[in-house]
Amino acid sequence: MKAKPTLLIIEDEPYILRGLTDLFVFHGYHVDSEMDGQNGLNKALEKKYSCILLDLMLPSMNGFEVCDIIRQSSQAQPIIMLTAKNSEEDVINGLTLGADDYLAKPFSTSELVLRVNGLVRRSAMAGQSTSILIGDHVRVCTQTLVGTSYQQKVQYTRREVAILSYLNEQSSFVSRTELLRQVWGYKSTEDVDTRTVDIHIARIRKKIEKNPRAPAHLVTFRGEGYQLFCSPVDV
Questions:
Q1: CA nearest to 90, candidates 103, 108, 79, 77
Q2: Which of 34, 67, 215, 225 has an alpha carbon within 20 to 30 A of 164's alpha carbon?
């Protein structure tokens, strides 16, 4: 019998926690939960979860701090941040610290289930050991999420590797909408904030480009999207 995926919910509002627990148990998950940031972090570091749902405002330690420490321990752990805040600064901060995705309250429960299922599925499929070679100086292992860039060791998140892998498979530019559908797994992108894509692209450039301000590999085609070139180009 196939084991159930395991979910850790770190949320301090009792009624939200109960609702999310019931929701994901109904959808076939085993659910662990904590209402305190420090306790949630301890549990997250004890074992690997299929996904962690992490609230931003928590007692003892906020979601940003929890996410940062988890990422120092594991780049592969899928994390979705739940927040009542939806300012650009909070979005950038959460994604920069390594959250794979975020959802602002109040959110659609069906949308949350779709995002969790998609992230869990893509994480499970990423088991094959494959390297992405970008020019002569950048190598990314899609299994270990570790690479080298200009003789420096670089650690990637699962989402960053998924973006690079998808772009590497395409022969032309890819729009933000296509990335949101193919990498994030959104069926509809009408109400999705495309800053999520831009922030991830900016983070990836810092890791693979010699000069992120003048990218030679991960290039923007204004009004069209992004394209990954394994040989540097002048644009």
A1: 103
A2: 67
Q: Count how many residues are written for the chain.
A: 235
- CA gap 90, 95 in Å, rounded: 9
38, amino acid identity: Q
pLDDT at 104: 82
pLDDT of residue 233: 55
